[in-house]
Amino acid sequence: MLSVQDLSIRFRTGEGHVHAVNNVSFDIAAGQKLALVGESGSGKSQIALSILGLLANNAETSGRIDFNGADLLSIPLRQLNKIRAKEIGIIFQDPMTSLNPYMTVERQLGEVLELHEGLRGSAARARVLEVMDAVQIPDAKNRLKSYPHEFSGGMRQRIVIAMALLLRPKLILADEPTTALDVTVQAQIMRLLDDIQQEYKTSILLITHDLGVVAGFCDETLVLYGGRVMERAATKDIFALPTHPYTRGLMRAVPNIHEPHAKLTAIPGQPPNQTQPLTACPFAARCQDAVMDCHSSLPDLTQSAPMRACLRPLEELT
Amino acid sequence: MKTKKIMNSPEFAEAVAEDMLESRSFWADARKRFFKNRMAVVSMSLLFCLALFAIFGHQFSKWTYEEIDWSILGKVKTHGQPSIENGHYFGVDELGRDLYARVVQGSRVSLLVGFVSGILAVMIGASMGAIAGYYGGRIDQVIMGAYNITLSIPYIIFFVVWQAFFGRSLEQMIMVLVIVNWTAGLLIVRGQVQTLKNREFVDAARMLGLSDFKIIFKHILPNMLWVITIYMSIVIPEMIMMESLVSFLGVGIQEPNTSWGALISEGAKTMTFGTIWQLAFPAACFVIAQVSLYYIGDGLRDALDPKERA
Known about the structure:
The complex is a heterodimer.
Chain A: E1 2-13, E2 16-28, E3 33-37, H1 44-52, E4 59-67, E5 70-71, H2 77-83, E6 88-91, H3 105-117, H4 121-134, H5 140-143, H6 153-165, E7 171-175, H7 183-200, E8 203-208, H8 211-215, E9 220-225, E10 228-234, H9 235-240, H10 245-252, E11 307-308
Parallel strand pairs in A: 3-8, 3-9, 6-7, 7-8
Antiparallel strand pairs in A: 1-2, 1-4, 4-5, 9-10, 10-11
Chain B: H1 10-21, H2 26-36, H3 38-56, H4 76-79, H5 99-135, H6 137-151, H7 155-166, H8 170-180, H9 186-196, H10 200-207, H11 212-220, H12 225-248, H13 260-269, H14 277-304
């Protein structure tokens, strides 16, 4: 359904170009749940924004983003407007800033319906109530006239989800949907997303830095580093046997409930400097398995399982 | 809470529950806070009285503001003081015209000029600021260039030249005040828009396919209406001040029409002849208007600042 091919994004800045995303390819089938996992600066949010055509003005893109036959990177804005929102919904990270503080919930949700389906008045209200029920907001009827600040953080994120669901999109981009929430609410929101995915049969692209959020939720996981795909596998395989040194490093940094006294190891070094075009594996400088070749050649993602972008064979990794 | 009650009394609990039940919009909240500010409320009523005086004052005067009372002309100092009997409640001016009627007329002109040009100027400035902040780039540069040029024009000279060309009517006065002050609020709105446009709800609106116009006027400007309101409360007294200043200097409204500044100027010229009322009444109106406008502005600032919100 959505197929990203060879996507590169770079930003013109005062100090030259910043290469945020480098030749990333992936696809999502209808009804699939895919996770994009990476640390800050790995380009995961920029991929989401490029799918929606919301990149900053100084961005340059290349490659293709194919959504049911249309290339989202090159079609005119008018057509893009029809596709985004109607067929692709987005859940932003921070429910504090993604709702307009001066509009009631009803007006904010109603605006979407008015713009895309010409619904107003009681017909619009019925649809708004329906999605507010779907995201399990208690007493939705009496809360229509409330302003965002009158809701708690978790409830606000539910409203954002309701907004994304309103037009029954085929794909939902969830850009760190739980990062701004506390842990118990995180679990509720992830369960809600799961229920909704099953009910509405949408695909979900979950973007997160939190492996714990991915674990129980996504079918497949894509690990990004330095704007490149490091590894792609079924989520359970990633947790059972990560095949890339970077993923392994990540796993060692996550506490394990079964080994409460185990030592956590951090990945040494800093995230890469992205002002130069990539000529070598971006992780090489921090990789404990790196050999000489790693600093001079750029491995591509293998096309068959295990899908990984690493020069070293799996058996030789520590 | 209307009354202070003991914290564990049932009345208190009820009042709190009621308080929480009613969904309070930002403006409802602000109104509540504004009316708690005593100085602001007093100023508001003073200004309201002044407005009533300006609108309906002519009903009570026996003279029009341009009629000359020939019986007093020439003996203003001895017979021209305020008196109820001959109908000159505020006395007469140097030319024997009824000062009450002239102060009413002056209040009309000054308040009208102040409010109309103040509101127009802020509306233009805010729109320009919003456009500059939202689009940035070349458009921003052009608007900021125009802003800097406007700042460097000495406005009194501009006034004199403008009125030499176009006359000294009320409309010209408003127009020239708006032209000189079109930048009012521009910078503050521009800055606010620059921060607001990066909020995710603006991204969300863009993604929905809303036009730039709708995004600016429906999503961004309502978020900063409080800034604009506060700015207006600062600009309106400034406009009245500026109008009075140029009228005082003699390039304002054309005689026999008048304004506070013109009246104060005339009164100040004859002050030493012992006709102090000619200065006192217009000056009192002017001071009341300025002081209450500033206190109202202060009250608005306290009421509308989002950081004050509980």
